[in-house]
Amino acid sequence: MRFLMLCREPRLYSCQRLQQACEQRGISLDILDPNRMLIRLAVEQGKSIFRLYYQAGEPYDKNRPLPELLPKYDAVLPRFGTASTEMGCRVLRYFEAQRIKVLNNATAFRLARDKWQSLQVLAEAQITVPATSFAGELCSFNGHLSQHHLPMVMKTLSGSQGVGVMLAESYPTAQSVLETLHQANINYLLQDFVTESKGQDIRAFVIGDRVIAAMQRSGNEGEFRANLHRGGNAKWIYLNEAEQKLAVDAAKAIGLDVAGVDLIRSYNGLAVLEVNASPGLEGIENASGVDIAGLMIEYLLNKQNVPH
After folding, report:
1. φ, ψ at 76 (rounded to 5°)
2. Distance between CA 227 and CA 66 in Å, rounded?
3. What pLDDT was estimated at residue 272?
4. Strand 200-207 to strand 258-266: parallel, antiparallel, or no bridges (unpaired)?
5. What is the spatial distance between Cα 190 and Cα 82, in angstroms, rounded to a whole number?
6. How far is CA 293 from each of CA 22, 216, 238, 239, 266, rounded to the nearest angstrom?
7. What is the crossing angle of helices 292-304 and 13-24, to 10°?
8. Residue 30 reports pLDDT greater than 70
9. N or C: which end of the chain has fewer CB within 10 A?
10. Could you tell me which of 56, 55, 99 has the C-alpha nearest to residue 76?
11. Measured between alpha carbons, how far is 30 from 21 in angstroms, rounded to an integer?
12. How does strand 258-266 pair with strand 269-276?
């Protein structure tokens, strides 16, 4: 059996752990960068023929080898970052057209990568999210800012690990940041800052119909973002039945098989900050002691109805 992981950085902890989990089950795993792939759609003898190629070598080497046809895979694990979303989702869609099982489909993956559209879908599913707004380019900055109280959070529509998330504690600061984002042609949203969260949030790791681990993340002194990549720390926590259901419902609303659901406690109860389609494994495996990589591979095998 041969699986493919779509990832630009095979040395990452998550990639290494998933590779170990595959090896333990006798599965061969290729880790390839979707940005090096070439998709060919052709018609032969009246039938559509799909082909996928991969080009190795240095990108700017004139003597690099030509793209080579990739072998047949039994399943695909998408683990690409935000910079690879477009091509990664196109490659995922290619595999879906081949009826090959994927661990998160292209439509759900793309939706999760757009912070505003995913929040809209969550709200439509009656899932509580923080007060958030998105404005067209002809709406004035003051008009947009008037919808929120201070302090407020500004987020770019794509980004991960806390990148593109800013806190404004005054309207002049907020307006200055919005002017910069507008000048750079970067779409953004505004969100009420949940002061009572005290720089903490919860990451619930969802696989299928259940939360298999959860951790509480806390930011360093003076840091409002709780992301571990920003220097925060994490500890294992237990979520009650209602909290687990909220996380699972959020993942299902986006359409994800595997998701990292970020939750925040407020005076109005638990709210969903965002849903991640390619959540990291290192922090939550270390905090919980759960073999999440192994559970992901088991889920994919069960999805294929493959005996193991």
Report:
1. -130, 135
2. 40
3. 95
4. antiparallel
5. 20
6. 9, 20, 20, 21, 31
7. 60
8. yes
9. C
10. 99
11. 13
12. antiparallel
Structure-block tokens of residue 98: 């081949």
pLDDT in tens, 119-137: 999 999 999 999 999 998 8
Average pLDDT estimate for 248-271: 94
> Cis peptide leading into 279, omega within 30 of 0?
no
Cα 308 from Cα 305, distance rounded (Å): 9
Q: Say whether 143 sits in a helix, a strand or coil.
A: helix
Per-residue pLDDT reduced to its tens digit, 199-209: 789 999 999 99
Separation of alpha carbons 286 and 84, rounded Å:
27
Q: What is the token pair recorded at 278?
A: 């390619």
Chain-centroid distance, C-alpha 62: 35
The residues, any chain, with a CB within 8 Å of residue 198's CB and separated by 6 or more, are: none
Instruction: Calculate mean pLDDT across residues 170-180.
Output: 90
Q: DSSP letter string over 163-232?
A: TTEEEESSHHHHHHHHHHHHHTT--EEEEE--GGGTTEEEEEEEETTEEEEEEEEEPPTT-----GGGT-
Q: How far is CA 21 from CA 17, 50, 75, 160, 296, in A?
A: 6, 30, 14, 25, 9
Cβ–Cβ < 8 Å for 74, 2: yes
Task: Return d(Cα 248, Cα 108) in angstroms, integer.
Answer: 14
**What does the alpha-carbon distance between residue 301 and residue 308 come to, in Å, rounded to a whole number?**
8
- Amino acid present at 247: A
Query: Other CB atoms closer than 10 Å to residue 252's CB: what's the count?
Result: 18
Backbone angles phi, psi at 210, to 5 degrees: -145, 155
